[in-house]
Amino acid sequence: MQPIEPDQWLAQYGAKIEQAKQQAEQARDQLGGVGGSASSPDGMITVTVNATGVLTDLRIKPEARGMDPGQIASEILAASSKAQREASGRVVQIMTDFVGESPALDFVKQQMPNGYAGDGTDEEEPKSELERKDTRPDDEYFTNPPDVMA
């Protein structure tokens, strides 16, 4: 093996650094446009989130005025969760293309809402406390209470 000239080594190293810089800029640009959007099943509520899952837009149709506030809150939470998973999936895909399967990708996946892995092994989002809440009238609740010892 022939020894490499210092100038040649430096040129190769500089080219690698420039390529890494370009790839990082490309990933940054792609991630900057990532977001997710989801609507309630009836289309009354639509939420939009950015790449980190932060709510950036919330639209509630005027027809939703007659809805129960608890139902509206539940629909907002469910739609937000769907939008976050959509955005997370895009982030994971972009980062997979950028860093490949690696500890860096594992770290990114751990930062996604609810540990989203994007590999098809994710469980469905757990129901929020509001969705788990028993909303039956008191008479019905006490006549047929939930089984708490199961």
Topology at a glance:
Blueprint: H1 6-32, E1 35-39, E2 45-50, E3 55-60, H2 69-99, H3 103-111, H4 129-132, H5 138-143
Antiparallel strand pairs: 1-2, 2-3
Order of helices and strands: HEEEHHHH
**Structural class determined from secondary elements:** mainly alpha
What does the largest sheet look like? 3 strands, antiparallel
CATH architecture of the domain at 33-115, please? Answer: 2-Layer Sandwich
Give the tally of β-strands.
Answer: 3
Say which CATH homologous superfamily of the domain at 33-115 is assigned.
Nucleoid-associated protein YbaB-like domain
Unreliable stretches covering 5 or more consecutive residues: none
The CATH class of the domain at 33-115 turns out to be: Alpha Beta
Pfam family, one: YbaB_DNA_bd
Region (Disordered): 21-44, 110-150
Biased composition (Basic and acidic residues): 127-139
GO molecular function: DNA binding
In short:
It holds the Pfam family YbaB_DNA_bd. The chain is mainly alpha-helical and 150 residues long.
